[in-house]
Automatic annotation (TrEMBL), chain A:
It comes from Silurus meridionalis. PANTHER family: CELL CYCLE CHECKPOINT PROTEIN RAD17. This is Cell cycle checkpoint protein RAD17. It is found in: Nucleus. Belongs to the rad17/RAD24 family. Residues 669-682 have a biased composition (Acidic residues). The keyword Ribosomal protein does not apply. GO terms for molecular function: ATP binding; chromatin binding; DNA clamp loader activity. Pfam families: Rad17. The lineage of its organism: Eukaryota, Metazoa, Chordata, Craniata, Vertebrata. One of its GO terms (cellular component) is nucleus. Residues 1-93, 363-388, 607-682 are annotated as: Disordered. Keywords: ATP-binding, Cell cycle, DNA damage, Nucleotide-binding, Nucleus.
TrEMBL record, chain B:
GO terms for cellular component: DNA replication factor C complex; nucleus. Keywords: DNA replication, Nucleus. This is Replication factor C subunit 3. InterPro entries: AAA+_ATPase, DNA_pol3_clamp-load_cplx_C, DNA_Rep/Repair_Clamp_Loader, P-loop_NTPase.
Amino acid sequence: MSKLSLGRKTSSGKLSSWVQPSFGDFFAGSGLNSVPSSKGLSGESKSKARSSSTDVGGKKPKKRKGEPQSSKPEPGIFSNRQGSQDEPWVDVHSPQTQAELAVHKKKVEEVETWLKDHLDTKSGNKGGSVLVLTGPSGCGKTATLHVLAKDSSCHIQEWTNPTTAEYRTDESFRDSFDPASRFNSFHSSSQTAAFQEFLLRANKYNRLQMSGDDAGAPERKIVLVEDFPNQFYRQPGCLHDILRRYRRTGRCPLVFIVSDSLSGDTSSRLLFPKDVQEELSIHSISFNPVAPTSMMKVLSRIATLEASKSAGRNSVPDKATLEQLCSGSSGDVRSAINSLQFFSYTGADFSLEQSLWASKKGKSSTAASKPRSKGRGRPAKASTALEESPAIGGKDASLFLFRALGKILYCKRESYEEGDVPELPAHLSEHQRDKLLVDPELVIERSHMSGEFFNLYLHQNYVDFFSDVEDVARASEYLSDADFLTAEWTSRSTMLGYGSSVATRGLIHSNAARAQAAHQSSVGFKPLHKPHWLHINKTFRENYLTAQSLFISFCLTPVSLVTELVPYLAKLSNPMRNQAQITFIQDVGHLSLRRFPGRLQLEALGDKDPGLLDLDSDHEDTGTKSTEPSTQNPLSGETIAVPTLPNSQEPGGDLPASQPQPTTSQALLDEEDLLIEEYDSD
Amino acid sequence: MSLWVDKYRPTSLAKLDYHKEQANHLKNLVQCGDFPHLLVYGPSGAGKKTRIMCLLRELYGAGVEKLRIEHQSIVAPSKKKIEINTIASNYHLEVNPSDAGNSDRVVIQELIKTVAQSQQIQSSTQREFKVVLLTEVDRLTKDAQHALRRTMEKYMSTCRLILCCNSTSKVISPIRSRCLAVRVPLPSTEEVCSVLMSVCKKEGLLLPAELARQVAEKSGRNLRKALLMCEACRVQQYPFSADQEIPATDWEVYLRETANAIVNQQSPQRLLEVRARLYELLTHCIPAEIIMKGLVTELLSNCDGHLKPEVAQMAAYYEHRLQLGNKAIYHLEAFVAKFMAIYKKFMEDGLDNFMF
């Protein structure tokens, strides 16, 4: 379904040729008019059309779900549009008032106050102010902004990336080969320049006063950017420069809307890094996925509206179906509404249950209708949602790493109801646990990480959640088991799943303090951290190799080199041959004997951080450098003076002088060397 | 100025300080100008390399002492380029094939082939064969060891191999049977003492016999370590006093403190601190096995006799895991946590018995 709306958005003209017939079957089956309304508006006119609100034509293809008309829609037009069945419901039912928004009230208020503060340019704050809205797709960012803009009666001017098709039309293409019109054929400029000009114009010029507008009222405007010119992804600095200029000269608030994604390179962090945000005092508001309750409200509202309108042709999904839609969409209103529309079309003769939840097991249909025991039945809902995912229409659920880790480490449990408590024999009673509410394998799958990395994250963080050493011992044993399972590289791909299962389930089970649901509330919020191991391992190996190449002249095995020679060299006044060796010895040979090593800074894991490990982070290297002066041994005066020795930096001179070697042969060496390499370590 | 270890290293078989009988045997072995493949093994710091170099000198004269470091790059059949450092004289080539990791087989085959195929120019004055000295043979993969076996037979006419390792248990038996095995045991404490005394005498220093003895004991009869220690003592304080404190390496002290931290308190927070310390040791190049071994030694000396078998068994279990697994920290930490659990339980039980 989301594909459909996406297709509409991008190439409305093409759409009718190949997408429509496939859906025509559906429409014809239910006796509906199957002609899509979106025609005639080509891509290039869209961007301009958008900026003026006069062509509020009902046929305008919508780009985003929650995008209401920028001016008040005429009631007449609205009802007309409701008549046409193939208009996406997301557009038809786009929220018009704050009450209709599925977004949490607090968030709306937050955005509203910001807008209020910054819309009044007269009230002293000079320069343009910038707001960034972030959140997963379909959580109502755009809708909120549009509704608020309407409420405060200001006009939204949106940037759209110019399409290259603009000068690729047949005519201009032919023109480009026409020598006469050579000079004005390619009038395209770079997207960045176009963007800059757009900002300038949006800033300077007011909208034209058209008839029918209530003239005279001071024009207030918000500039909205959802599409980013591609150049900015490659060179975020470009955007920052423009923003800096805008800060100084801009008059109206500038709003960026960035969707979060799980796939590593979160564009919001790339485009708006923390330091730039601070420098330009960019205000950032992050949206959460839509809560199930408000989503339910929206869905049932739309369902009843549509049902009454279609006079029985559309089936009204029952509550259970709505709930499943709700949980299947994982907080994405747009996809939920799209699915809802799709399901309603399939008609009553279809068995909804069967067609939608193809993957459902037999028990689940009873589970859905089973009377809920407590409160609003949320735990039960959560567990069913985890068990089944809809065959179609469901959004691919995913979890941010932070939440995935939390699910495992906090391991929510639910106490059994009276009667069906499985009893363990007495000697196993210590393993009695309440029912687990998370499915570890599913959590790992949704975290989009390999089990190995996930285990590393768990390992870094699990100790904080334990209070008893024996439990920790058991948990660490499971982690060790998991590593052991994946040790053999030939079978690793098969064993990875088992390894992570063992690790996660082992961790959950061994946390005896959290075995009963009743005692679980004790652990407060604990910050999570990124794993150290990869960095440590890398440093270890680098140092190991460096040691070997630096001290090859001592002809020692690596182990005795690093455990005997280097540490003792650090204690001796023996002159080193080159600076690299001195630095290495000071760095590696010495251990600061303070009680708590200060070198390992914990790097906190943010709630939106991607699960990728930046191996190149050098934050520890800088730490090392800074401690170096303090770790200099008392002999450093002596050692530093050494490089003035004759063969200090000469690679050719780095012969194993330590080896049994008559000093008289030294002179001959240079001539005899066949191949002497430089092994000055980096 | 070089280290005492290198400065006073004996250069001929006749000048060796201990195992003189064995030195005699070796001398007789090369007397006729030829010798079989050798497998020299023994613990670290016993003098294996010293003996091998003496042997080569006996064979080729002072020429073997003119060493140069060569940087060789070998292209594996899979087009992977392997870089390896070798130490060579005109007569021999020393290489540590395990530097190449998994590609050690290629290194062995290619290196020995190139050495063996190049004939000696002046065979009248020289031997007819070159010597390839392979160190750390026990760390070779099985694959490489089998390759070594074939190579040994193939190039017997132009090339002799001297294999050097700590233990023969990881060397496959076909190789062991093709070599003359020479075991170099650790010197006795007295021998270490006498070496220390003579070195100090040559340096013009006066070493009290008591201190020499302490150094020898503390070094675990590892002569290299003993000499390094002795030199560190000299830096620390001279003239020597008999009851002088012998400087230990930083990592040993650090490891001991870590062990004490484990014994002093058993809690998840302490485990986190220990983990940070383990990481610190690893970044300072101390291999995980050494950490494990050091920890066990320290912990065993700290805990009650009843616990010792259990702790030792655990240590063996996790050491095994360490060898098989990928990420050392899991296993190190599991061992520490396990020890903490056992120790805590033991202490609590002990307390209970004491109370009632």
